[in-house]
Amino acid sequence: VAFLDCQMGSHIIGEGWNNWRDWEREKTVTYVEYNSSGPGAKRQKRVSWSRCLTPEEASKYQLENIFPENNSWYI
Questions:
Q1: pLDDT higher than threshold 90 for residue 60
Q2: 16, 50 contact by CB (below 8 A)
Q3: Alpha carbon of 36 to those of 16, 44, 50, 68: distances in Å?
Q4: Do 1 and 30 touch, CB atoms closer than 8 A?
Q5: Rounded to two decimals, what is the model's pTM?
């Protein structure tokens, strides 16, 4: 799960993520964010298994990289 350039409202909990009471899920999922803003974007309380992307890492999250084939549906 990646959140890039998102305005996060106060309804976003400080932890940012929830494993739905199953610690095993933390072993197989990635939660990242980049350039978040707003009251829910405060990273001080984020879970230890989430992280912020660098600008270089964030630049790779483009639709053409995620959906390289048959991408006319989102243009």
A1: yes
A2: yes
A3: 11, 13, 13, 26
A4: yes
A5: 0.77
- Token readout for 3 is 């959140």
Q: Look at phi and psi of residue 70 and say left if phi exceeds 0, alpha if psi is from -120 to 50, else beta.
A: left
Answer whether 44's CB lies under 8 Å from 14's CB: yes
Both structure tokens of 55: 């600008």
d(CA 61, CA 46): 21
Residue ranges per structural domain of the chain: 2-74
- pLDDT class of 29 with cuts at 50, 70, 90: confident
Amino acid at 57: E
- Overall size of the chain counted in residues: 75
pLDDT confidence tier of residue 75, bands split at 50, 70 and 90: low
The pLDDT value recorded for residue 27 is 87
